[in-house]
Design brief:
Elements: E1 2-6, H1 10-21, E2 25-30, H2 34-44, E3 47-48, H3 52-58, E4 61-64, H4 68-78, E5 87-90, H5 97-100, E6 110-116, E7 134-139, H6 144-153, E8 157-160, H7 166-176, H8 178-192, H9 198-219, H10 221-224, H11 234-243, H12 247-267, H13 274-280, H14 282-290
Parallel strand pairs: 1-2, 1-4, 2-3, 4-5, 5-6, 7-8
Antiparallel strand pairs: 6-7
Helix pairs in contact: 8-9, 11-14
Length: 291
């Protein structure tokens, strides 16, 4: 397998380095920003390509590691460049292979979405975390099992998913990853009102967040749940709603807390959470905030 990359951003850097670290042949990079392709090639011990058609000719697998909004545009450019027999892959979690490569069979090629469940945040260091990443694959039936075996051999867990469930899949990823950033950001804002500096908020929240995440993955979200909703402490929840002044922020607190009631009821099936539900309903909660 000779892998070439079109696009030399964080994902391209990280996947290329991860592959080469496991003895996979990465031939090189092409990018509109030649400096990025040069850096990625040096980082992975591969070649910088100044001509995309040359990279395609030398590759059996081409990864389009470009922004989601330009994947199809790049594909439409390269599909006329003798891609027959080759595999074209993207790393979008939300877009399917057929969505981005709708006519790929007409060109004798095979399309795949290969998405690591991992926050690739740094192009030079994120590859080290990919050892523990779960990869989800979707696309042409021809090489699906080979891709599953490929990632299994280098130590990753793999799930082949259908294109029909791609939206649910990516929404799940966003809730557990991106949305958590927003919740921590709200916690930082509230702690600043207590006199914390931004640096102090991160120091203070770190053990709370990390231990909670550990608990979730050790015993599951139901058993890990603590706090006022879990113990049906309505007076504390009312205080929270009163101190969160922004209307949108209150909606977020209420919506998530209503979801927490589902977990709390599983943990304490004999506890009556009806009044808690009323407090968290939008109309009653808005009335409280106004008072």
């Amino acid at each position: 397998m000779n892998i070439g990359f079109i696009g030399a951003g964080k994902v391209g850097f990280s996947l290329g380095k991860y592959f080469t670290a496991h003895g996979i042949n990465v031939i090189g990079y092409y990018s509109q920003k030649s400096e990025s392709a040069k850096d990625a090639a040096e980082f992975t011990g591969s070649e910088q390509y100044s001509n995309v058609s040359e990279l395609i000719k030398d590759s059996s697998v081409i990864f389009l590691t470009v922004p989601d909004s330009t994947i199809k545009q790049v594909y439409d450019t390269i599909k006329h460049m003798s891609i027959s027999g080759k595999q074209i892959c993207h790393c979008s979690g939300s877009m399917t292979a057929s969505e981005t490569f709708p006519d790929i069979s007409e060109y004798g090629a095979y399309g795949y979405s290969i998405h690591p469940l991992f926050p690739v945040s740094d192009k030079y260091s994120s590859y080290t975390g990919l050892n523990d990443a779960f990869f989800c694959i979707e696309g042409d039936i021809e090489y699906l099992n080979e891709w599953e075996s490929f990632f299994n051999k280098i130590g990753n867990r793999v799930r082949i998913i259908s294109s029909e469930t791609k939206r649910e899949y990516h929404a799940a990823c966003a809730v557990s990853s991106n949305l958590v950033c927003a919740l921590v950001y709200e916690s930082i804002s509230l702690l600043k009102k207590c006199g914390f500096t931004e640096e102090e908020t991160l120091i203070a929240l770190r053990p709370l967040v990390i231990q909670n995440i550990k608990n979730i993955f050790e015993v599951g979200p139901v058993a890990a749940l603590t706090g006022p909703v879990e113990r049906c402490d309505t007076s504390t929840v009312i205080k929270h709603l009163e101190c969160i002044n922004d209307k949108q922020d209150r909606k977020i607190y209420k919506s998530i807390s209503l979801k927490l009631i589902e977990l709390a009821q599983k943990k304490h099936p004999d506890t009556n959470y009806e009044y808690m539900k009323q407090i968290l309903s939008f109309d009653l909660a808005e009335d409280m905030a106004k008072k």
